[in-house]
Amino acid sequence: MIRDIASPHVYRRDRRVTRRHQRLTLAAAAAIAGLLLAGGVAYGGAASSGQRVVVHAGDTLWAIAAAHYAGGDVQARIAEIEVANHLTRAALRPGQILRLPAP
Nearest to residue 80, comparing CAs of 102, 59, 63? Predict the structure, then answer.
């Protein structure tokens, strides 16, 4: 019987190689997504540059608006604060952080 020494060899991909390739692809995709997210925030994706206020016990929206927006329409400023912070009622919790829209 004659055998061919140079018989065709079937090459299989090593599982470790494909998993490594998958991990590298996933890491690259995560890095690109992070850069896109950071770039969006840095270039116009951020909200207005208003102040932030920490609510203390006894604080009210009226008092906060009157203290930070002197000489303006307090009721209009309260409405702006409610919209900026997605508030549905005037009750505040101590430790809550409120964004104040720029004047």
Answer: 102
The 10s digit of each residue's pLDDT in 16-56 is: 667 778 888 888 888 888 777 776 655 554 445 678 999 99
CATH number of 51-100: 3.10.350
Query: Residues with Cβ < 8 Å from 9, sequence gap 6 or more?
Result: none
- Per-residue pLDDT tens for 53-74? 999 999 999 999 999 888 888 8
Sequence ranges of the domains in the chain: 51-100
CB under 8 A, 24+ apart: contacts of 61-70 = 61/87, 61/90, 61/92, 64/98, 64/100, 68/100, 69/103
